Amino acid sequence: MRKNIRRQIYTSLLIIVGTGIMGFAIKSSYDPIGLITGGFSGIGIMLKRLTANYIDGGVPIWVTNLVLDIPLFFLAYKLKGKRFIGKTMAASLLLTFWLGVIPDCDLAGGDFLLASVYGGVLTGAGIGLVLSAQVATGGTDLIATLLHMKFQSYSIAQILQIIDGIIIIAGSFVCGIHASLYAIFAVIVTSRVSDLITEGGKFSKAVYIISEQHEQIADAVMNQMSRGTTLLPAVGMYKKEERSMLFCVVSKKEVVTLKEHIKNIDRNAFVIVTDAREVLGEGFLEY
């Protein structure tokens, strides 16, 4: 019981802090110089600038965000049910709240490069925290999820890219192509940072080794490097010969030592080294 309560508190904090960081990034970097990076916030920035001549300061971003989200929530509730929409609606309303209470400020001082890097890092961090709570922030994410029900041959990520791409292109007509190019760069930074948070920053290396001396190599890995290794049966399809393949995971620093051991034991060994984005347990990251 206490574990569930702590988990709920932790999840709530992730959503509150994550949406707060996202709101701050929008109000302090994207909005001041017109970086439209997609999403309902991007539409809000466009609408704010288009209505600035008719309304003092233009339509606030939080108003646009709320007006666009409300009908979307009703549609999602009808199509996907209460359990699906619950936390997503909470996250979206929190983002709208932050967009309303955080004051306008230009921390980048009008510098597009600084704003795209700074905004991308902050937005990515905020999205990463929200995604770590297994929640989406609504907006175009929710639209992509609903459209995926109709267009199942496309992934949600592909649909989302198309929607946000349309918003960025539309933004180029409002804020200029110069700002839109920097907006694309900000999107790339955002994606990298959010992946770093959700998938972990301690990248490791997965190594596949095919060698006649696999027992000696396995012994070196286990006894000299204190790492585990797994022997996998394999068949060479050219000669239909049965082979033995070792599989192990090491840190980036250890991969050099591993290759040195392999070279000393069998210079003819066939070795494949690939990235392992996240490794849990057995001497690596804890769950």
Description:
This protein has 287 residues and is an alpha+beta fold. Helices cover 63% and strands 11% of the residues. It contains 10 helices and 4 strands; from the N terminus they run ααααααααβαββαβ. Strands 2-3-1-4 form a 4-stranded antiparallel sheet. A hairpin with a 4-residue loop joins β2 and β3. α1 runs antiparallel to α5, α2 packs antiparallel against α3 and α6 packs across α7. The chain starts with a helix and ends in an 11-residue tail after the last strand. 34% of the residues are buried. The mean pLDDT is 84.
Q: Topology of this protein?
A:
Blueprint: H1 2-33, H2 39-50, H3 61-80, H4 82-101, H5 112-132, H6 140-150, H7 156-175, H8 177-199, E1 204-210, H9 214-224, E2 230-236, E3 241-251, H10 254-265, E4 270-276
Antiparallel strand pairs: 1-3, 1-4, 2-3
Annotation keywords:
287 residues; alpha+beta; 4-stranded antiparallel beta sheet; 10 helices; 4 strands; 63% helix; elongated
> N-to-C SSE series?
HHHHHHHHEHEEHE
Tell me the span between the first and last alpha carbons.
Answer: 20 Å
Mean pLDDT: 84
Q: Helical region count?
A: 10
Note the main sheet. Answer: 4 strands, antiparallel
Number of DSSP strand runs: 4
Sheet/helix structural class? alpha+beta
What is the strand content? Answer: 5-15%
Strand order of the largest sheet: 2-3-1-4
Instruction: Give the C-alpha Rg.
Output: 25 Å
Shape summary: elongated
Low-confidence stretches: none
Helix content: 55-70%
What would a concise description of this structure say?
This protein is an alpha+beta fold and 287 residues long. It is built from ten helices and four strands; from the N terminus they run H-H-H-H-H-H-H-H-E-H-E-E-H-E.
